[in-house]
Design brief:
single chain; 98 residues; 51% helix
């Protein structure tokens, strides 16, 4: 089972990230790297030799987003459990600690 700290630790280990997608261009020498910045589609041309590193960076970004979502899910679970615990205490006539 993951803990919030373990998820944050895994997020911190991701050292390379890049947003966007990669598409091959005609001729095969360059690839089209597309991403969004400030509401606009930004395109840059990447040499084929640089594509493996770029793909790894894009995968790092996707992994980071997945871990961020997992972190949120864990914190929501903890929050709900705490609220339920406090609600149960309140219903039993005990004071809720702040």
């Amino acid at each position: 089972m993951s803990t919030p700290k373990s998820v944050l630790d895994r997020m911190a280990k991701i050292q390379r990230m890049e947003r966007g997608t990669i598409c091959p261009m005609q001729g095969g020498r360059f690839f089209n790297h597309q991403s969004w910045k400030k509401g606009r589609n930004v395109v840059r041309y990447v040499p084929a030799a640089d594509v493996p590193a770029l793909r790894k960076s894009i995968q790092g970004y996707k992994q980071f987003l997945a871990l961020a979502n997992k972190y949120v899910d864990l914190i929501v679970q903890l929050t709900r459990a705490e609220l339920k615990k406090n609600l149960n205490r309140n219903q039993n006539g005990q004071k809720i600690r702040n």
